[in-house]
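Section 5: illustrative case.
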């Protein structure tokens, strides 16, 4: 049984209402957040209308604030925002969806001042406003807002999306907008994108920056931003309407051959059952200047070939992709397509190929992530001379992964890093090398057979002979 001094609801009830009220007043002194929470609870006793009034007042106060939000205040400011958002969703919306609808838009509108006052890297804020976009979609459906009015509201918001706060808005509003609402929003965006540009006189144009062709004017930046905003929104509407042709129509001609854009289009064409068109646009992509083809483009091409009934060609192409990249996802996809037992043979073939791959470090990374630790250990043993001890970002975690079941392989990796630090006199790494040497000593008793590799004691003797003058290293504890 819990002691009577344990902090829980039952024990606190024993204090009585008056004493608890006095304690709450005392605890809230000096804490604006606690005071706001108490006022919100008091408002709740008066009904949702009073709660809505408190939320509206608080949001107006946040919008008026001008002080910079320092990093150590981000959590508290976001907690305040979350309190307002949660109150709108759980209290006001349950009783008065129309009032909640207006409040959630007021909440979204404070994003501008929040981002103007904070570091753009404060992702916690963007997550809060994206959640509010989702809330707005649910509340709009419950409130029965007219689709034209809702489309107008969404359109106005998208024009002021400078911080990405409204990025998920269209997707979240699809159920509330419906077919007719999406069409109305689409017409607004099309009209907006076609509006004539108001170009100021040359003397009045503001220079935003300089490029290779001379000055870049602010009106040009704003015009390009408007076109991009409209284009992205129209693409989202096309996706919501499952209209792949409308999605393609929003792509500028010069971007259609970009591999990433070609992949996006191909994915949509495949979903629409238009595999031949998907393959055509993929094969028309421009890969000049790329060392490796993008994985997603390769994946889409395999899917297009398979959808066209060209299974053997798809399998051969996926194997080619694996050979070029050692990307395990290609191999997994290939194995999934094979019948039982054939996949085992294919995996063995893949492992043999990896063992002979020119870049031993990429081969090691593959075996570690597959995972195939016994194969990784065999690779290290067979190609020890090729290991680059300078690649500590690979060697260190690899040794940690292998040390339990393959201590000899882990030792070889540790020795590679030790050797690099001492051979090249990298004094900044001596403390790490000393730690690695201590790890080698702890692994040695677990190695039954060193084979052609020097046992630990002999290795240390040779190390001292070769690097006796590295006093900075030998003076470190190990």
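Designed sequence:
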């Amino acid at each position: 049984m819990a002691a009577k001094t344990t902090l829980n609801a039952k024990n606190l009830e024993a204090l009585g209402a008056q004493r608890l009220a006095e304690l709450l007043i005392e605890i809230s002194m000096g804490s604006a957040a606690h005071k706001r929470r108490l006022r919100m609870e008091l408002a709740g006793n008066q009904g949702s209308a009073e709660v809505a009034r408190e939320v509206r007042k608080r949001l107006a106060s946040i919008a008026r604030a001008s002080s910079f939000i320092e990093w150590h205040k981000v959590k508290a400011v976001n907690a305040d925002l979350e309190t307002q958002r949660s109150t709108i969703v759980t209290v006001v919306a349950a009783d008065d969806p129309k009032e909640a609808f207006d409040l959630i838009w007021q909440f979204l509108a404070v994003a501008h001042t929040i981002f103007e006052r904070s570091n753009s890297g404060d992702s916690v804020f963007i997550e809060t406003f994206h959640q509010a976009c989702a809330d707005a979609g649910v509340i709009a459906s419950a409130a029965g807002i007219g689709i034209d009015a809702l489309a107008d509201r969404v359109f106005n918001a998208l024009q002021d999306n400078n911080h990405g706060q409204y990025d998920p808005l269209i997707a979240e509003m699809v159920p509330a907008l419906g077919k007719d609402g999406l069409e109305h929003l689409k017409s607004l965006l099309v009209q907006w994108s076609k509006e004539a540009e108001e170009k100021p006189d040359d003397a009045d144009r503001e220079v935003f920056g300089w490029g290779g062709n001379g000055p870049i004017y602010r009106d040009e930046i704003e015009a390009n931003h408007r076109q991009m905003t409209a284009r992205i929104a129209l693409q989202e509407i096309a996706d919501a309407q499952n209209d792949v042709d409308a999605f393609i129509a929003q792509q500028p001609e010069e971007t259609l051959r970009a591999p990433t854009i070609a992949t996006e289009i191909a994915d949509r064409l495949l979903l629409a059952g238009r595999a031949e068109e998907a393959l055509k646009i993929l094969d028309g992509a421009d890969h000049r200047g790329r060392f490796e083809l993008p994985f997603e483009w390769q994946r889409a091409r395999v899917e297009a070939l398979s959808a066209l009934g060209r299974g053997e060609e798809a399998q051969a192409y996926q194997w080619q992709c694996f050979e070029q990249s050692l990307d395990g996802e290609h191999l997994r996809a290939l194995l999934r397509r094979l019948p039982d037992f054939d996949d085992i043979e294919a995996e063995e073939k893949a492992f043999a190929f990896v063992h002979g791959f020119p870049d031993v470090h990429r081969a090691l990374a593959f075996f570690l992530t597959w995972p195939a630790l016994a194969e990784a250990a065999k690779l290290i043993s067979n190609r020890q001379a090729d290991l680059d001890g300078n690649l500590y970002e690979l060697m260190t975690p690899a040794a940690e992964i292998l040390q339990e079941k393959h201590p000899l392989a882990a030792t070889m990796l540790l020795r590679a890093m030790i050797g690099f630090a001492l051979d090249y006199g990298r004094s900044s790494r001596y403390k790490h090398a000393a730690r690695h040497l201590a790890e080698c000593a702890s692994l040695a008793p677990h190695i039954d057979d060193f084979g052609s590799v020097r046992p630990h004691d002999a290795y240390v003797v040779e190390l001292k002979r070769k690097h006796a003058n590295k006093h900075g290293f030998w003076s470190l504890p190990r």
